[in-house]
Amino acid sequence: MSANELSRPAGEITVAIAGQPNTGKSTVFNFLTGSNQHVGNWPGITVEKKEGRFVRDGISYRVVDLPGTYSLSANSKEEMIARDFVIKQAPDLIVVVVDASQLTRSLYLVAEMMSLGAPMILALNMMDVAEKKGLAIDLGAFEKSIGVPVVPMTASKRIGIDVLSESIAKRAGVRTPLLETCCNPDGEYADLLQRLQNTIKGYVPEDYRIGWVAQKLLEEDSGMIDLMQKQMDEQKWQSVRKMLPDDNRGAFAVARARYDWIHNILANSVVREKNEVHRSLFDKVATNLLSGTILGMVVTLTGFVLAVIIAFGCVVMIHPLAANGIQMVQNTAGQSLPLLADFIAQGVIPALSMIFGVSVFIFGIMLFTSFLEDIGYLPRMAYIADMFMSRIGLPGKSFMPLFMGFGCNIASVMGCRVIESTRQRFKTIIIASHVPCPGVMVTIAFMIGIFFGPVAPVIVVAATVALLVQTYITSRLLDHTVLRGAETGMIMELPPYHMPNWQTIWAHVWRRFTSFVQKAGSLIAFIIAVIWALSYFPNGNMVDSYLAVVGKAFEPLGMLMGMDWRLLTCLFVAFFSKEAALIAIAVLYGIQIEEGALTGLMMDNIFPEVGNDAVGRFLAGNVSRPSALAFIFALLFSIPCYATVGAIYYETKSLKWTIGSAIYYTTLSLVWGIAAYHVGLLFFTS
Q1: Residues 657 and 536 in one domain
Q2: CA-wise closest residue to 358 among 419, 404, 323
Q3: CB 362 within 8 A of CB 414
Q4: How many domains, the chain?
Q5: Are 189 and 250 in contact (CB under 8 A)?
Q6: Is residue 196 located within the same domain as residue 127?
Q7: Whole-number Å distance between alpha carbons of 51 and 66
């Protein structure tokens, strides 16, 4: 064994899978590990961490799927996670997955990895796409030029997976020759780099390569600057600081050196043949501002409608089973164990039935989104949407989650997973959680129809404008408070189209869906119990329940919006379910429904009560139009339903963000309710 090699590690071997987004990295990970996967989060960070294992020749391999990242710079949490794992955890092998059809882009990450001298294999994926584009790669020359083992693959068809597994077994722990000078700039920057190395020598932490650290300092990498400033005394650090260019010239010099290295490799090993596939007509349509917008809206609406149809069909099928289950519980335990029977019949079964319907919708949206991402169309949608979304400080990929909110805010929040940037993902989660769902729209339409008749269109327009204005305010407020940072904009190289790999799509969707059900289930179950108890006790009638007591206690606050305790209680009920506010209105304003808890009443009465003329006549005689206007706007900006709050916690893994968002929207509800009430007093006399 040479001086540049390490002995094979004892025990379990750690393999890191690295790569840029859209290179098929997750597909490689899924095929290597199969069902032996675990999903969590990196310690203290809300970025998803995927680990898996496989066994070969009696040896266990732990595989860590690093976040997709274009480089190892400190531009995002994902990039920091990837580089810290490679440097500090020192995996026994790194498999860098690159897109063979877009080597100029994909090899940039490899260029950075080369400077670290880590044990490495290059998985040359999407060979079939490269061939269709007319690229002929001389694998022998390519491997010789790059200096590490290269495994050609088409992971979507499972071609090359076994060869990669065999190569991992051979190469784990064998360190590649250290290329400290890989991609170093020349000329004046070569001298500057050498002077930087001489100055920081003796101060670089043990885990880091001095040449790589010098490169990062020359790039003005914020993470490395902070690290070295802590390692050095003030005088020594100032001598380093004075060497660094302050106009990004150093970063450009390092980037140019890396691309020169890449171009030299490609010049010696890649030939572009005459049968190159030109840009398709479909892609021209998909990326044109006008036609791309229309196509994106049609595709999104189609997926949305399909998900709704499937969810509604499942609800229709499950409703008789739930009704029979309720009847069976009441017949068997209603006399002997009345409290338990009521809890199961009016709490557990109705709530689980509603959650089932929502979950089916979420699953359908997940499947649809993953399909678009897998075939390569989702980035095109993001490209078109970015032209509009950037005006409110959001990336193009925020469009899909926001649109999902019109079907269900839970799906909207979970759909934010497609956004790579943690900062932009969190911002989208907060904004997406108050997109008006069907429950909000139905309730608002009901109130507008009763109270505003001929001027109803004016109220609808006013509510829409208020929603858009508040979305912009929320986005900018987050930018200047808890999510400070420069807007990065969207820079993307559109991936090629692929045939869908249903096995990969299904595995990805099923893992995310089951993870949500398992982790959010306990929270949802707890809130179901709370809802039932508040609306049932002390005597089984919601009118006299503890929920009504809470409404009466907060009536002085409600009067600021012109709401008595009944209307205010209906607003509280909306936290449990936006549709439930209609049932609360019917019950608390005089329509006698059989006694029971809120969840039980919702299941049996929501549809007939929406259209009950008696409710409308009674409300019109007991609630003023300014108060109704206040209720409409307070509901529009109210805290999301409990299941959406659970989804926010699941996606952010942060109680601070979850509670903070709840407080923010509760405050917004109060502010908009008060404002709407006083505006209503100016225009309506009763």
Answers
A1: yes
A2: 404
A3: yes
A4: 3
A5: yes
A6: no
A7: 9
